[in-house]
Design a protein that fits this description.
The complex is a heterodimer of chains A (325) and B (466). With 325 residues, chain A is mainly alpha-helical. Helix content of chain A is 63%, strand content 0%. Classes of the chains: A mainly alpha (325), B alpha/beta (466). Chains A and B meet through α12 of A and α1, α5, α21 and α22 of B.
């Protein structure tokens, strides 16, 4: 049941008026187009302008970055042939730059934590709240409020919680500087502290998306499952979860994007050092700073681009191939 | 199930037109805001990137533009400093008739965007630092030399200040306007209460730290979450142990970080670390200064700007209790230099300003105005942590603390600008020296040869400066 079947003779786009259909006389062998001239102009503008903006603000700079990553340009003097150094930036990045591999590791940690801990918790809460129990709206609002906050605000809030004179240490009774747990300064635990703060927000985000998806699941499927004697866990994993495939794909893509995009909280806390190095912050600290190592920063950006392209390409090939029910 | 096609009064096209119109209406203020700059916390590079020339708000409305105008960019974004800038500009316009167009940018952003700013469409006059960073941008051709202005005003400055504004080519590129010394701050009332004496030598300093620890205080307050405060300790130890020449050579790349002299610095620092606050890596300097205010710590090696945390308490007994002493002598030949960090701020003229042709003279007049003690005092009123450099500044309004600062800096035979102003910015940044110092502090007993080699390797992999 995919929608109203269009009456014969109308366009393939449901709902479109056929009042202005362009019908040429049979003698002139023109293509029978159902789009008026106005339609075509409108479509050209509506697709064309965003495309032009997209190309000029995203794709051209991306290509420029890829090109710049082969130079040691600093953005000060003009770009000359002398600046071209080939793969040297990448060589430095992978071998001698001491902050690259910790940053890659932290991004991987972020991804793994989001995929295996934060997102499942969000899904679990969505499944619990789908049950229309009393107060479900209150719980939903409570979990969703962190999503409304920008990541910078989340960073500020949790910074106050984590500092040695802050909330968590006071509650635990560690009020002197000698006994306080250094959530922000200890390089082994501060990445986990940041992941808790980021996960706090991510859980609400996933929960809301999944709830919306759960509402669209056909109730007769659940009835059939319960008639067959399935308990709640079996119903979810065997019946509901497979039906939610499109939503699942969206959730996975969002999770991967959020973990590759990780920047704000670590930057707010200490500008990405001492255990909070991240690829996005390395790019910022190298390119958009007084250091102005634009060539080197572009190399890091290209690495991040390649890493990001992998899940995007997977996602696109799967949707383009149109595999679903 | 097929639905009968409805004949709506509102067609799909009308809805789309409506959405487009609404989107256009909503975006117009955003576009206008993006094309014009605000007078505060907007990066100066926004001007360069949008290509539109930005009209910052004038601070002298209705002033006569008969004699000329000058555009100035400043990083004095704190409320006290901003008010002082406006007062100074008003006084300048009154005196000379030149209108001033002020562009204020958030302090940190100004520094981060400086390369874009100076290479794009900078204001004619702008605030900056001295030392290596002044020389670097002068070498890039971003400043015009102001020897003619300097010839008129140099009598008003000591040699130390005069040295700080000379570029690598021997020409003068800026007017030094304020500074603040780095020293060891403490509370007089705590010292009187617990019968501590101000230490003059390293041995006395360590003995004092031990006593403070026994009394339950944190001997040395420290907050290094931002990374740069640790540089103050490195600087002073290096200056005392190895002297000014080695220090500047090291930061300029002429000496190596693998030098055994540098090892001495780290070994000396390792002796201080047991007395430091244990949670330093998660605290900002403000939070660490608060521990000094709250009498939880005994001493704090920081710049004079620590007084702002004391002033914030609004309690006269706290404000009056703040005092400092210069870092104790370490028993080497370099103690006599009495060298210390006293970063000097300057005003300079940008060579790539779009208004340079018409505003060179007005900008030079502006810089000359800033060389007067009276002008610097106006900024001093808004930010008591920034001490005027001019000799004719009226010191009678200075508090005891500020008078002492003037004495200490005048007695210093060598002044350095602070590590991140004395060296390359790509070396001293967040993923640079700041990280390396944090790494040392986390484990002072690590293999120093390997550690120093990693710093030198980092320096070596930096691309050439041009």
């Amino acid at each position: 049941m995919s929608g109203p079947t269009p009456p014969p003779g109308a366009s393939a786009l449901p709902g479109q008026q056929t009042g202005g259909a362009d019908v040429r006389p049979v003698g002139r062998r023109r293509r029978y187009s159902v789009l008026t001239r106005r339609d075509r102009v409108t479509m050209a503008l509506m697709v064309g302008i965003p495309t032009v903006l997209f190309i000029s603000f995203i794709w051209l700079p991306t290509i420029a970055s890829i090109f710049l990553s082969f130079t040691n340009w600093r953005g000060i003097s003009a770009l000359t042939a002398n600046n071209f150094i080939g793969l040297k930036n990448y060589e430095t990045l992978f071998t001698t730059y001491p902050f690259f591999w910790p940053a890659v590791w932290h991004n991987v940690l972020w991804l793994v934590t989001f995929v295996f801990i934060a997102t499942p918790i969000g899904i679990f809460i969505a499944v619990l709240l789908d049950r229309e129990m009393r107060g479900t709206r209150i719980y939903q609002s409570a979990f969703f409020i962190p999503v409304v906050l920008s990541l910078a605000i989340v960073g500020f809030i949790w910074e106050q919680m984590y500092t040695s004179q802050g909330f968590i240490n006071s509650v635990l009774g560690h009020t002197s500087s000698n006994t306080a747990i250094d959530f922000l300064g200890n390089p082994t635990i501060n990445i986990w502290a940041v992941l808790v703060a980021a996960g706090w927000r991510h859980v609400g985000y996933v929960m809301v998306l999944y709830l919306a998806g759960l509402k669209s699941v056909d109730p007769t499927l659940r009835e059939a499952a319960s008639i067959d004697g399935a308990n709640a866990r079996q119903t979810f994993f065997r019946v509901v979860f497979p039906v939610m495939k499109p939503i699942n794909i969206v959730i996975i893509v969002i999770t991967v994007i959020e973990s590759l995009r990780a920047f704000d909280i670590a930057y707010i806390i200490n500008r990405g050092k001492n255990g909070l190095e991240l690829l996005s912050i390395l790019i910022t600290n190298n390119s958009i700073s007084e250091a102005s190592l634009i060539g080197f920063g572009s190399a890091i950006a290209v690495v991040l681009l390649v890493i990001s392209l992998v899940p995007i390409v997977i996602f696109l090939t799967r949707t383009m191939r149109g595999d679903s029910t | 199930m097929a639905e009968p096609t409805r004949v709506d009064a509102v067609s799909r096209r009308t809805v789309l037109k409506g959405i487009a119109g609404a989107a256009g209406l909503v975006s117009i203020p955003a576009i206008i805001a993006a094309c014009s700059s605000t007078t505060s916390s907007s990066a100066p590079s926004a001007a360069a990137s949008t290509g539109a020339s930005t009209p910052p708000a004038s601070t002298a409305p209705g002033a006569s533009t008969a004699v000329g105008t000058v555009h100035v960019g400043s990083n004095h974004s704190d409320p006290g400093e901003k008010g002082a800038m406006e007062a100074i500009n008003a006084a300048f316009t009154k005196d000379t008739g030149i209108a001033v167009v002020l562009n204020t940018v958030d302090h940190g952003t100004f520094q981060d965007q400086i390369t874009n700013y100076l290479g794009g469409t900078p204001d004619t006059g702008y605030t900056w630092f001295s030392g290596f960073r002044l020389k670097f941008f002068a070498d890039q051709g971003f400043n015009i030399p102001i020897d003619d202005v300097w010839a008129k005003v140099k009598g008003n400055f000591t040699d130390g200040f005069a040295q700080s504004v000379v570029g690598n080519d021997g020409k003068v590129y800026g007017i030094p306007v304020d500074y603040y010394p780095w020293a060891v701050f403490y509370r007089k009332d705590v010292f009187a209460d617990k019968k501590y004496t101000v230490p003059a030598t390293w041995e006395e300093f360590v003995a004092l730290c031990t006593k403070m620890q026994a009394d339950g205080l944190t001997p040395i307050a420290f907050g290094d979450k931002d990374g740069w405060p640790a540089m103050g300790t490195f600087d002073i130890l290096n200056l005392r142990l190895n002297g000014y020449t080695f220090h500047t050579d090291l930061l300029a790349g002429k000496a190596k970080w693998t030098d055994p002299k540098v090892t001495k610095v780290f070994e000396q620092w390792a002796k201080m670390i047991p007395f430091q606050a244990k949670d330093y890596a998660g605290l900002t300097w403000q939070q660490a200064a608060d521990t000094l205010v709250q009498k939880k710590s005994g001493m704090y090696l920081l710049g004079l700007f620590v007084s702002s945390q004391f002033a914030a308490t609004k309690k006269p007994e706290d404000i009056a209790a703040l005092d400092f002493f210069p870092f104790p002598s370490l028993g080497t030949e370099f103690d006599a230099e009495k060298a210390l960090d006293a970063p000097i701020d300057t005003w300079q003229i940008a060579a790539k300003s779009p208004n340079l042709a018409t505003e060179t003279d007005t900008a030079k007049a502006y810089l000359e105005y800033w060389a007067k003690g009276a002008t610097q005092e106006l900024m001093f009123k808004g930010q008591p942590g920034l001490i005027p450099t001019a000799n004719d500044a009226n010191t009678s309004s200075y508090s005891d603390l500020q008078k002492k600062a003037v004495e200490v800096v005048s007695a210093a035979k060598r002044i350095t600008q602070f590590l991140d102003r004395d060296t390359r910015s790509d070396f001293a940044g967040s993923n640079g020296m700041q990280s390396f110092l944090l790494k040392f502090l986390a484990d002072p007993t690590q293999d120093l040869t390997k550690y120093q080699a990693s710093i030198q390797a980092f320096w070596d992999q930096l691309p050439p400066l041009v």
